[in-house]
Amino acid sequence: MPDGGSLTLDQIAETKTPSFLDRREMGIVNIGGPGRIEAAGEGWDLAEGDVLYLGMGAGPVTFLGQGRFYLTSAPAHRALPHRLITVAEAKHVHMGAVETSNKRTIKQFIHPLVMESCQLVLGYTTLEDGSVWNTIPSHVHDRRMEAYLYHGMAPEARVLHLMGEPQETRHLFVANEQAVLSPSWSIHSGAGIGGYTFIWAMAGDNVDYTDMDFIQPEDLR
């Protein structure tokens, strides 16, 4: 969060590379006000909800303005073009129904139907007014892990996030702008108090968003 100034991401000790993106790709979501990102001699202005993809070898990344940036990254095997994907350019998928309390819009940004990446897949889901459940029925995808960031929630609100093996589930109470890491063997579903959006990001053996093994509610324990 540059807060009107600038912040630069470059060398991170844990990657053991001269710069963080030397062997990685990155997806960045702006969840705040207008912001700007500069890398590889280019610059992009992001409105709230826009997503920037940076390919392997982008070098130092500088964040500016009033944006609040959520970063996801995964190892990459080749350099792909950097790209800004606006909310209007994302693929919008409408799912669920009022009757099942899960009417929602899925916005796909870093996704094979929108652009190419090495292994990162990213977008976010927003619940419609009066709906609380996301990702019903639950599913697992043994070939990819997934990370979630819940946001757009009132300070006192919580999402009950379900996770764990289908026959031995666990739960977390998640507050605004808290993240959950979901391993490939874990289900992921949730129900919230009031409206919310969750950013999902996946990495693994494939980039097939539809590669899911569904678990029906009656089979959960």
UniProtKB/TrEMBL annotation:
UniProt name for this protein: 5-dehydro-4-deoxy-D-glucuronate isomerase
One Pfam family from the record: KduI
Pathway: Glycan metabolism; pectin degradation; 2-dehydro-3-deoxy-D-gluconate from pectin: step 4/5
BP GO terms, sorted: D-galacturonate catabolic process; D-glucuronate catabolic process; pectin catabolic process
Phylogenetic placement of the source organism: Bacteria, Pseudomonadati, Pseudomonadota, Alphaproteobacteria, Rhodobacterales
Gene3D superfamilies membership: Jelly Rolls, pectin degrading enzyme 5-keto 4- deoxyuronate isomerase, domain 1
Superkingdom field: Bacteria
GO molecular function term, any single one: 4-deoxy-L-threo-5-hexosulose-uronate ketol-isomerase activity
